[in-house]
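Final paragraph of the annual report: two paired records, presented back to back.
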Amino acid sequence: MGQAPADLGGEHPMRVLHIITGLAAGGAEQQLRLLLRHLPAECTVATLTNPGAVATAIRDEGTPVVELGMRHNRDVSVLPRLVRLIKAGGYDLVHTHLYRACVYGRLAARVAGVPHIVATEHSLGTALIEGRRTSAGVRVLYLATERLGDATIAVSGAVARRLAGWGVRPGRIVVLPNGVDAGEFTYDSALRQLTRVRLGLSPSDRVVGAVGRLAPAKRFDVLVRAVSEIDGATLLLVGDGPERANLQELARAGGVASRVRFTGEAMDVGALLCAMDVFASPSEEETFGLAVLEALACGLPVRYVSCPALEELPPSAAPHARRLRLDVARFRDELAVALREPRSRLPPPAVGCYDIVRLAGQVAQLYELLQAGAPITTPRPETHPTAPSG
């Protein structure tokens, strides 16, 4: 862990088991890694499946990771393994992350007799959860297991409203946004040069960048088409996923395969952001918009379609971020202008609003309230603008 565990109200540090569906290089997974660095508790992580690069990083930073080897969504044999793990660890609290881990983890924690159960809802959209279509069965199972816990953390007001719309009682929802470690993304001109050399980019190349899972809902096809219409521009796509082959074919068909670079899953996102000149996020629905915040922390101008993290702040908090409608021509024109404009690489005030140390402190306070049997704080989700400005 990033620091020595502090006392959360008792003689010994609170023992917390975090259960997550997988630990590949994704937003929720990286968010858990950041939280562990600053959370004043004695933590262990259990991953149901896919112990990827983030699992290695968490171990390297001092937190144990247990791999449960779940084979598929209905592999119920993971339940007794989870129950045994929880009982053996003597945990004071179980904190679950992502749908599958929330369903199995809350049930196992209740069977094991854990005093307190918390979940973080990272990825609930209007019709998708973690990029997959929701169904009546998914909703019923989610709600049934949600009632086994004490509280559900929503990472934005938008997610809180969706949870309430699903039927989660407002008194059980706590809005605690994601956090950013701004120091990890500070712009470094020397790192920019080294990263560009590694990627085969010249100092004069104009680079549009994007970060995220290569899935249909992210709409990276819009960026491939937009950048193909900007003379001399290169698109750097950081991430991997099922849409990669389709995006590569789209670039080939458009005659711009040499100008679209795919990095695959990457842990050095800060270095890759340094190599970019402008950041784009064409996803029509995000639950927070962590990649946008990281790009802003690196001082990049940003063009985006959805980012609750910014939509819940005044425009002055991120003056070089513009919200656009999802349209190839609009992205082409906006990105072309942003690529021509010189700009310092200083982060805007919005980044400071989502400091990871503050977030970890708020999560710790929630743990304390539950341990003390006190009512939890439940901010009322506010209404925020939803109409694109560009």
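The closing record of the year follows.
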Amino acid sequence: MTGNPAVRDGLTWQGLRWAFANGGYACNFHPLAWLSHMLDVEFFQLDPAGHHLTSALLHALNAALCFAALRSLTGRTAPALLSAALFASHPLRVESVAWISERKDLLAGAFFFLVLLAWAHHLRSPSRARFALALFALGLLAKPMLVTLPCVLLLLDGWPLRRWQAFGGERSLAALLREKAPFFLLALASCAVTFWVQSKGGCTQHLEHLGFTERATNAVISPARYFGNLAWPRDLAVFYPHPAIVDPERSRLLTFLASALLIGSLSVLAWRLRARAGFLAVGWLWFLGMLVPVIGLVQVGGQAMADRYSYLPSVGIHLAFAFGLAALARSGGVLRVAAGLVALAVLFAPLPTTVRQISVWKDTRTLFEHALAVTGRNYVAHVEVGRVLGGAGEIDRAREHFEAAAAIHPGFFEARYDLAGALYLQGDLAGAERECSEALRIRPVDALARDFLGRIQARRKGGN
């Protein structure tokens, strides 16, 4: 972000035009996120404290909006409050809040909950429908992951709104779909723009290296991993390498089958209980459905999953849990006490992990050394740690990390390019030329690499 001149200049007319006109910067079209960063620069310049404060306040706002939306939709205060509190304090939220560049998560979250609030009011005052649609459009301009929101609205028609009827009834499926047609059209347009921008920016290049089988396998495994991290958050990292990239020969069949069994069993259970406990089906399908854009069927980047991707999908699990406890508490007696104790335990038990995870984001070295400690064969973390060491003058140690990254993922441009730089500083010009040439084989149009290769070759020939 600080390397982007349009952001560093603050909020200007030129920056406003750039935010909406640039096609592939950062491989996403999220102009409202860029404008948010520009506005922060106006107030705080490049002092990170102010930018972090904005993100923290936005997350607090989202927690309040989550409560307000769920309460408005369900008419229930206590479970809506518990859902919002779990959403606010879970360790998986740390990445979206601590990483300033993930402001788009927070902005999209705010518009998401505002749409739910507006939709709840629309059902009582139909004139609000256009307002909800406008909020949805703004949310898509903050982060296109909101494309699944129309499906969430359909789920809420079943529970708690109870608008579903048998086919051909007063509120048929066709009627509910027609009602939300403008939302679906906006979502389709956003999908088209996003795919074009990501393709233009080169972020879908991993599609060339990962076949459909590898991507489909990860699409089954990653939701199970997200669910596991929600239930038991441990070994959280800023980057989770895709196993098919770093260990392509290793079979993932058992993991795939176990994940499929878990997801299938929970889906069947939620469906069977839909009549008596509609919140379970809605919460579970909310979670799975909102993950669809990021489970890797269309691979963007080299990660298998990311904590930030669970920001809004996790609300479905929190909702199912909170309203499940509320249903248990309605039985009264011992069950009511037990439900209260469980709610307190689940709310407060993860807080030490949340605090520790916040400390992981202290600085770049701490963040990526932690990633190396809790994940295997993490080539991205090796490169980032190497860059920090190189910047501190520890070229020998930096080279070791770059070599490790290149050994894990030979096709990783950054590992080859940075290794060439380390070798150059150590005086190994032949090695530097070899690695820089390999980097250019991976990314032939990179101007910096071409310039660096020219300087290496000139120096080898005795030039300047």
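The beta strands are 240-241, 303-305. This concludes the annual technical report; the extension proposal builds directly on these records.
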